[in-house]
Amino acid sequence: MSTQLASVTTLEDRTKRVTTQTLQEMRRAGTKIAMLTAYDYTSARILDGAGVDVLLVGDSASNVMAGNETTLPITLEHMIYHAQCVIPGVQRSLVVVDLPFGTYQGDTKRALHSAIRVMKETGAHAVKLEGGAVALEAIQRILSAGIPVMGHLGLTPQSIYKFGTYRVRAREEEEADQVRRDAVLLEQAGCFGIVLEKIPATLAAEVTESISIPTIGIGAGPSTSGQVLVTHDLLGLTKDFNPRFVRRYADLADTIHDAIEHYIEDVRAGTFPALDESY
Q1: What is the pLDDT of residues 127-167, one digit of tens each?
Q2: In whole angstroms, what is the distance from residue 115 CA to residue 227 CA?
Q3: Disulfide-capable partner of 217 in 27, 60, 98, 224 (CB 3.0 to 4.6 Å)?
Q4: Is residue 157 classed as helix, strand or coil in its secondary structure?
Q5: Is the model's pTM score more than 0.70?
């Protein structure tokens, strides 16, 4: 009986729509949150069906989908397009969309307009912004319209030219203190969660304990409320990006390469299509 009950509960958990409230409940229960990136219908459908809690339509699409060196070139229109592709493939996951560089910095009116466009034109459930105190006014303006906001602290890729490197952030106490202050500010403003990217594990644990909203780590150790990875990295579709925090659960780049070579061989040999593959 208990095994059957556990199975039913698991099934219900895997089919019930994830909301920002769900993430709060998961944090309180000590259940880790699984978050991955998605940029298209097919991958979103697979990830959602596998039980991923949060799908991030990340501005990392600039890197893995468009081949850009940084996230800076991607536009709001690009992000809206990718989110429009993701939403039809989702039945359960909470979908969060990155606001790209230049759509919220230093202009709260533009920030609100950008967030409203994302929500109205895509059907997404929330937006994500980089920065703490420097982005606070934009975050407050967006929240005032009833749009859920996820924060992002630590290494903020949209500021890469300011940092000059992708190295670990907040090793020095001054920057670590800023991360601590910013996390509290984002919670007080009303953010439903915060991504902590590439900061020391001890600092991430401290920040997670100091606030009541979920933290999602990427290169921030195991003590955050959940984890996020770029799906292309997890699946081994990227070969030239090997930071310490990436764990590759598959090697699909080689698998796909081998499959395509096999296809080419069959076409050249005239063995594809076979008679039973023809009309």
Answers
A1: 999 999 999 999 999 999 999 999 999 999 998 888 777 88
A2: 24
A3: 224
A4: helix
A5: yes
Q: Which ranges of 94-212 does DSSP label H, i.e. alpha helix?
A: 108-122, 136-144, 160-163, 173-189, 201-210
- Asked if 54 contacts 18 with a C-beta cutoff of 8 angstroms, the reply is yes
| CATH of segment(s) 16-248 | 3.20.20.60
CB 215 within 8 A of CB 26: no
Helix (H) or strand (E) holding 98: strand 94-98
Among the listed residues 149, 29, 30, the one whose alpha carbon sits nearest the alpha carbon of residue 94: 149
How many angstroms separate the CA atoms of 145 and 163, rounded?
Answer: 32
∠ CA 66-70-72 to the nearest 5 degrees? 90
Q: Which residue carries 């990427």 as its tokens?
A: 218
Instruction: Report the DSSP beta bridge partners of residue 215.
Output: 194
Tokens of 206: 């401290």
Decide if 47 contacts 65 (C-beta within 8 A): no
User: Active-site residues: which are they?
Assistant: 197
Contact between 124 and 118 under an 8 Å Cβ cutoff? The reply is yes
Return the domain boundaries, the chain: 16-248
Residue 100, class by beta-carbon neighbours within 10 Å (0-12 exposed, 13-18 middle, 19+ buried)? Answer: buried
